[in-house]
Design a protein that fits this description.
Length: 466
């Protein structure tokens, strides 16, 4: 049965879900009509009712079969009309024409059978067509057929007392049933058409809004692409055109120092001036490099590779070997989970946090840094804990902003953009970063990274004090 269904409904697979359901309903309706006609045809053949019954039954079956194949090829209206006329042809031949030659009083009840057949066909018409003109056309045709049949029966039975009156009573009963059904069907169809028109109007407006939204998204995407290209150009200008003058200044300062030594001019004030120039040049170069690093984060693609955090920490320790050695820092690394991310960015993230822990160490104790993690709901929550100078709670909301410094450059070097870069890296990985700290008692940076790919940001508590 499923193979038959798939065969006849194969042409409707690309239609909407509503049209597919409608097609399935009509398919079963046609099969039901075919089954009923087959049973009637076989029964009449067994009862040997005559050649007229056999011909009309065979014609009805043929019409329904052809209607089924028309339906398969999506000629739905032709299929509905053909099936209706095939069954009507059988009803007319077997009732109206046959009853011309019958005089049995019991045949008056055949009006009921006739009416039931016509009402059944009416339901078929309502299933296939939504136009009121079709409903009215078949309603008038059915009444004419029923009236003709009643007229035939009346002429056959009028000689029998009260039989003529019974015929018209039966006709009136079935006639009223057809009229009531026609009005109900027309009202229901009108109501359905109103709903369908509203749905079509809504679908058109939705499609228009979708097109406008797609155009807007395409326009914004193009603007974003243009913005990224301009950002790349700006990064090139920063990395080349702005750094070049600094290299020139640094080079000439070196030449001046060398010339002063050659001339034997070792004035302490001149040395201090040169040292200030060299320090300012280095700070400017570092600031340009940090701004460049921060701006490049705006054009990074979504991270998608598996990164071993333990390998990243090992690489960071190698880069910071001198700082770790000079500060005698102790780094304790717990068991760390691998994550989904960008290896280069994660290296920069841990390098910034560890170097900060070393930079802002306490003078009274050896710096101790602990790195660990916990797995929570598809995310890995990492922490980098130190025993440094700590951060006051009032600065928790500002430490991740670019160029926000809590200490002067005299005491601690830097540009004030390191933690802003960390925040940006975490945002790119769709995570969260926050701190726990108490002034004079160290700081713990918490942040989340995806253990598996996800479109949903991690939900963690806001910044709070320890």
């Amino acid at each position: 049965m499923q193979l038959v269904k798939n065969y006849f409904l194969s042409g409707y697979k690309t239609d909407s879900a509503f049209e597919q359901k409608k097609a399935t309903f009509l398919f079963y309706f046609i099969l039901s009509a075919l089954a009923v006609s087959t049973i009637v045809f076989i029964s009449q053949a067994i009862l040997q009712l005559g050649l007229l019954y056999t011909i009309s039954g065979a014609m009805a079956l043929l019409g329904i079969v052809v209607s089924l194949f028309l339906f398969k090829n999506k000629y739905i209206e032709a299929s509905g009309h053909l099936m209706a006329f095939a069954v009507l042809f059988m009803v007319i031949l077997q009732n109206v024409f046959c009853d011309i030659y019958r005089t049995d009083p019991a045949i008056r009840y055949r009006i009921y059978l006739d009416g039931a057949s016509l009402i059944g066909i009416y339901f078929l018409i309502i299933s296939f067509f939504r136009e009121n003109r079709v409903i009215y056309f078949y309603g008038v045709m059915f009444v004419l057929i029923l009236f003709t049949h009643s007229l035939v029966l009346y002429f056959n039975l009028r000689a029998i007392p009260e039989m003529g009156a019974f015929v018209w009573e039966h006709f009136a009963t079935v006639f009223v049933a057809i009229i009531v059904l026609a009005f109900i069907s027309t009202w229901l169809l009108g109501y359905m058409n109103t709903i369908i028109e509203q749905n079509e109007d809504f679908a058109q407006r939705l499609a228009k809004q979708k097109e406008e939204l797609e155009e807007m998204v395409e326009e914004r995407t193009q603007d974003l692409s243009t913005s990224n290209e301009k950002l790349k150009e700006f990064a090139h200008i920063v990395s080349h055109d702005l750094k070049e003058p600094l290299r020139t200044i640094s080079g000439f300062v070196t030449l001046i120092q060398r010339e002063l030594r050659r001339l034997g001019l070792n004035d302490d004030d001149i040395k201090d001036y040169m040292a200030h120039v060299c320090r300012g040049t280095r700070q400017m170069e570092q600031l340009i490099s940090d701004i460049l690093s921060y701006s490049k984060l705006n054009i990074i693609d979504k991270p998608s590779e598996t990164v071993s955090v333990e390998t990243v920490i090992a690489e960071v320790k190698s880069v910071l070997t001198k700082a770790i050695y000079d500060s005698e820092a102790k780094i304790h690394i717990m068991e760390l989970e691998s994550v989904i991310g960008d290896r280069r960015l994660l290296t920069q993230l841990f390098q910034n946090l560890i170097s900060n822990a070393i930079k802002y160490r306490s003078d009274s104790q050896t710096p101790v840094i602990e790195i660990g993690c916990e797995v929570e709901d598809g995310y890995v929550q990492f922490y980098v804990r130190d025993n440094g100078i700590g951060i006051s709670e009032e600065y928790f909301s500002t430490v991740f902003q670019a160029f926000k410094r809590l200490h002067s450059r005299v005491n601690y070097e830097g540009t004030g953009i390191g933690l802003a870069i960390c925040k940006k890296i975490i945002d790119i990985h769709r995570g969260r970063i926050w701190i726990e700290s108490e002034e004079g008692r160290g700081t713990t940076f918490y942040f989340t990274l995806p253990k598996t790919q996800t479109e949903h940001p991690a939900m963690y508590p806001v910044v709070h004090a320890a």
